[in-house]
Amino acid sequence: MLIRTIFRCITIGSLLVFISCQKDAQTEGTVHTDGVRLKHITKGSDVESLLRPLMQDYTLDHEAFTDVGSYPSPSYRYYYDINWDWNLGNDRVTAYRSLSCSAGMGDESKEEILESAKDFVEIQDERLGKAPYNNVFAIRYTDQKKSDWRCEMYILKVGNHMRNQSITLSGSYGPIYRDDIEALAPSPPDNKMVVTELLKLLEPID
């Protein structure tokens, strides 16, 4: 009787361990399909065509794409940087805008990212945090200036094989920082335009 009881306990224990392992394996293999990710873009001209309202007076100056592997399927390295400048024939001031996108930015939560962004404030936009952009939020410098402004959009990971993604849009002007020169420089885009344009760089998860 005692041997039978011990055997039964061992059997039940083994079964529970097996079920637990099966659940862990299923969890590790789960790919969440709710949310969006970066579109797979590999040319500056394609980005420019998407962001035409944002860059209509700017000229594409430089682009650098790193596209190794088979994004969005693992494994891959995918990020890019694009720069534009603005002059309109005035030799006193030149303005600059830069866009950086990365498909590998850690696995921090929204709360952790906001905690570390000391000089930023979250952009409140009714489209963010709701389907299909339920894994997206955006922040900007608390004090946006023509000489130094920055907006960041974060796309939290949507699958166990993916990391957080990010888009950074920033700008400045030069070469001299004076009130009369600053008056000639273009203003930073407003929050609504930033969100509207940067969302064009995203796509729903298949």
Quick synopsis:
The protein has 206 residues and is α+β, with helices and mostly antiparallel strands. It has five helices and nine strands.
Determine the mean pLDDT: 85
Strand content: 25-35%
In order across it, which strands form the biggest sheet? 2-3-4-8-7-6-5
In which range does the helix fraction lie? 25-40%
Per DSSP, the total helix count is: 5
Q: What overall geometry do the principal axes of the alpha carbons give?
A: globular
Q: Helix-strand pattern, N to C? A: HEHEEEHEEEEHHE
Ranges where pLDDT stays below 50 over 5 or more residues in a row are 1-32
Helix/sheet category: alpha+beta
Based on DSSP secondary structure assignment, what is the total number of beta strands?
A: 9
Outline the biggest β-sheet: 7 strands, antiparallel
